[in-house]
Amino acid sequence: MGTDIYSDSAMVLSNPQILLTRLNSENLPVITQNIADKILAEIRRHEGAGKEDKWHQDKAEEIKNLYKDKWLNTSRPLTVERMKFELMELLVVEGTPSKYENNIHLPRLEEADLAWGVLISTLYPEFPSFLGFDVWGSARYSGYEVPLGIPCAKFSEKECFKRVSTPKGRAFKKFTGIGQPTGWTEISY
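RE: above sequence
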Protein backbone atom coordinates (compact mmCIF):
# COMPACT_ATOMS: atom_id res chain seq x y z
CA MET A 1 0.00 0.00 0.00
CA GLY A 2 1.37 3.42 -0.87
CA THR A 3 0.54 6.98 -1.65
CA ASP A 4 -0.35 8.16 -5.14
CA ILE A 5 0.50 11.75 -5.81
CA TYR A 6 0.02 13.71 -8.98
CA SER A 7 -0.41 17.28 -10.07
CA ASP A 8 -3.25 18.76 -12.08
CA SER A 9 -4.27 22.15 -13.37
CA ALA A 10 -7.27 23.81 -14.92
CA MET A 11 -8.98 27.14 -15.30
CA VAL A 12 -10.86 27.31 -11.99
CA LEU A 13 -14.06 29.31 -11.60
CA SER A 14 -14.85 29.76 -7.93
CA ASN A 15 -18.19 31.49 -8.47
CA PRO A 16 -20.09 29.20 -10.86
CA GLN A 17 -23.37 31.01 -10.18
CA ILE A 18 -22.29 33.63 -12.74
CA LEU A 19 -22.82 30.92 -15.37
CA LEU A 20 -26.55 31.11 -14.62
CA THR A 21 -26.84 34.64 -16.06
CA ARG A 22 -27.62 33.38 -19.58
CA LEU A 23 -30.30 30.96 -18.37
CA ASN A 24 -33.74 32.25 -19.39
CA SER A 25 -37.21 31.04 -20.31
CA GLU A 26 -36.25 30.73 -24.00
CA ASN A 27 -33.32 28.36 -23.50
CA LEU A 28 -34.64 26.54 -20.42
CA PRO A 29 -36.62 23.90 -22.40
CA VAL A 30 -33.54 23.09 -24.51
CA ILE A 31 -31.33 22.72 -21.45
CA THR A 32 -33.90 20.62 -19.60
CA GLN A 33 -34.30 18.34 -22.65
CA ASN A 34 -30.51 18.09 -23.11
CA ILE A 35 -30.09 17.07 -19.46
CA ALA A 36 -32.83 14.43 -19.83
CA ASP A 37 -31.25 13.15 -23.07
CA LYS A 38 -27.83 12.86 -21.42
CA ILE A 39 -29.31 10.98 -18.45
CA LEU A 40 -31.24 8.61 -20.72
CA ALA A 41 -28.12 7.97 -22.81
CA GLU A 42 -26.22 7.12 -19.64
CA ILE A 43 -28.99 4.74 -18.56
CA ARG A 44 -29.00 3.06 -22.01
CA ARG A 45 -25.21 2.74 -21.91
CA HIS A 46 -25.32 0.91 -18.60
CA GLU A 47 -28.32 -1.21 -19.59
CA GLY A 48 -26.58 -2.25 -22.81
CA ALA A 49 -23.39 -3.17 -21.00
CA GLY A 50 -25.26 -4.66 -18.07
CA LYS A 51 -26.90 -7.65 -19.72
CA GLU A 52 -24.19 -9.83 -18.25
CA ASP A 53 -22.85 -7.47 -15.60
CA LYS A 54 -24.73 -6.84 -12.35
CA TRP A 55 -22.74 -3.66 -11.63
CA HIS A 56 -24.03 -2.04 -14.85
CA GLN A 57 -27.58 -3.17 -14.11
CA ASP A 58 -27.36 -1.66 -10.63
CA LYS A 59 -25.81 1.54 -11.99
CA ALA A 60 -28.62 1.98 -14.55
CA GLU A 61 -31.20 1.54 -11.79
CA GLU A 62 -29.32 3.98 -9.54
CA ILE A 63 -29.29 6.61 -12.29
CA LYS A 64 -33.02 6.17 -12.93
CA ASN A 65 -33.81 6.59 -9.24
CA LEU A 66 -31.47 9.55 -8.80
CA TYR A 67 -32.82 11.59 -11.69
CA LYS A 68 -36.42 10.52 -12.24
CA ASP A 69 -38.18 13.09 -10.04
CA LYS A 70 -36.23 16.18 -11.00
CA TRP A 71 -34.69 15.86 -14.44
CA LEU A 72 -36.91 13.25 -16.08
CA ASN A 73 -40.31 14.42 -14.80
CA THR A 74 -41.94 16.12 -17.80
CA SER A 75 -45.27 16.56 -16.01
CA ARG A 76 -43.69 19.19 -13.73
CA PRO A 77 -41.51 21.47 -15.89
CA LEU A 78 -38.92 23.58 -14.11
CA THR A 79 -39.13 27.37 -14.05
CA VAL A 80 -35.97 29.42 -14.56
CA GLU A 81 -35.79 30.28 -10.87
CA ARG A 82 -36.39 26.66 -9.85
CA MET A 83 -33.70 25.46 -12.29
CA LYS A 84 -31.22 27.96 -10.83
CA PHE A 85 -32.09 26.79 -7.33
CA GLU A 86 -31.74 23.11 -8.27
CA LEU A 87 -28.38 23.71 -9.96
CA MET A 88 -27.01 25.58 -6.95
CA GLU A 89 -28.32 22.86 -4.62
CA LEU A 90 -26.08 20.40 -6.46
CA LEU A 91 -23.09 22.41 -5.25
CA VAL A 92 -23.75 22.19 -1.52
CA VAL A 93 -20.49 21.19 0.17
CA GLU A 94 -20.29 18.68 3.01
CA GLY A 95 -17.44 19.11 5.46
CA THR A 96 -15.29 22.09 6.32
CA PRO A 97 -11.82 23.10 5.22
CA SER A 98 -9.04 22.13 7.57
CA LYS A 99 -5.31 22.54 7.80
CA TYR A 100 -4.56 18.85 8.23
CA GLU A 101 -7.65 16.96 7.05
CA ASN A 102 -9.18 16.71 3.61
CA ASN A 103 -12.67 15.62 4.68
CA ILE A 104 -14.73 17.74 2.33
CA HIS A 105 -16.71 16.81 -0.76
CA LEU A 106 -19.66 17.48 -3.02
CA PRO A 107 -22.10 14.63 -2.27
CA ARG A 108 -23.98 15.19 -5.56
CA LEU A 109 -20.87 15.56 -7.72
CA GLU A 110 -21.95 13.16 -10.46
CA GLU A 111 -25.31 14.91 -10.86
CA ALA A 112 -23.66 18.35 -10.69
CA ASP A 113 -21.14 17.49 -13.39
CA LEU A 114 -23.88 16.16 -15.66
CA ALA A 115 -26.40 19.01 -15.24
CA TRP A 116 -23.89 21.85 -15.18
CA GLY A 117 -21.97 20.26 -18.05
CA VAL A 118 -25.10 20.37 -20.20
CA LEU A 119 -25.86 23.94 -19.13
CA ILE A 120 -22.32 25.12 -19.91
CA SER A 121 -22.03 23.36 -23.27
CA THR A 122 -25.45 24.70 -24.31
CA LEU A 123 -25.13 28.30 -23.11
CA TYR A 124 -21.36 28.78 -23.48
CA PRO A 125 -20.22 26.89 -26.59
CA GLU A 126 -17.34 29.36 -26.90
CA PHE A 127 -15.86 28.22 -23.56
CA PRO A 128 -13.15 25.60 -23.15
CA SER A 129 -14.28 22.09 -22.21
CA PHE A 130 -15.93 21.77 -18.82
CA LEU A 131 -13.96 19.23 -16.78
CA GLY A 132 -16.31 19.01 -13.81
CA PHE A 133 -16.51 20.37 -10.29
CA ASP A 134 -14.14 20.04 -7.42
CA VAL A 135 -13.95 21.25 -3.85
CA TRP A 136 -10.68 21.38 -1.98
CA GLY A 137 -10.45 21.03 1.77
CA SER A 138 -6.82 21.52 2.71
CA ALA A 139 -4.05 23.60 1.20
CA ARG A 140 -1.57 21.05 2.53
CA TYR A 141 -3.22 18.41 0.34
CA SER A 142 -4.22 20.45 -2.68
CA GLY A 143 -1.89 23.42 -2.84
CA TYR A 144 -2.20 27.04 -1.89
CA GLU A 145 -3.60 28.34 -5.18
CA VAL A 146 -7.01 26.68 -4.94
CA PRO A 147 -9.89 28.18 -2.94
CA LEU A 148 -10.81 26.03 0.03
CA GLY A 149 -14.34 24.88 0.81
CA ILE A 150 -15.86 26.42 -2.32
CA PRO A 151 -17.29 24.36 -5.19
CA CYS A 152 -15.31 25.30 -8.28
CA ALA A 153 -15.99 24.63 -11.94
CA LYS A 154 -12.91 23.43 -13.80
CA PHE A 155 -12.28 24.18 -17.47
CA SER A 156 -9.60 22.92 -19.84
CA GLU A 157 -6.50 25.02 -19.48
CA LYS A 158 -5.04 23.60 -22.70
CA GLU A 159 -7.86 25.09 -24.77
CA CYS A 160 -7.19 28.57 -23.39
CA PHE A 161 -3.59 29.11 -24.42
CA LYS A 162 -1.31 28.58 -27.38
CA ARG A 163 2.30 27.71 -26.76
CA VAL A 164 4.60 28.91 -29.48
CA SER A 165 8.24 27.96 -29.70
CA THR A 166 10.84 30.70 -29.55
CA PRO A 167 13.87 30.59 -31.88
CA LYS A 168 15.86 28.99 -29.04
CA GLY A 169 13.11 26.42 -28.49
CA ARG A 170 13.03 25.56 -32.19
CA ALA A 171 16.83 25.18 -32.25
CA PHE A 172 16.72 22.94 -29.16
CA LYS A 173 13.97 20.78 -30.68
CA LYS A 174 15.76 20.54 -34.01
CA PHE A 175 18.93 19.31 -32.32
CA THR A 176 17.45 17.11 -29.55
CA GLY A 177 14.00 16.17 -30.85
CA ILE A 178 12.49 17.38 -27.57
CA GLY A 179 9.70 19.89 -28.09
CA GLN A 180 7.64 19.63 -24.92
CA PRO A 181 8.67 20.36 -21.34
CA THR A 182 8.52 17.60 -18.77
CA GLY A 183 6.59 18.21 -15.55
CA TRP A 184 6.79 16.43 -12.23
CA THR A 185 5.81 16.61 -8.62
CA GLU A 186 8.30 16.16 -5.87
CA ILE A 187 7.58 14.88 -2.40
CA SER A 188 9.82 14.95 0.59
CA TYR A 189 9.33 12.96 3.77
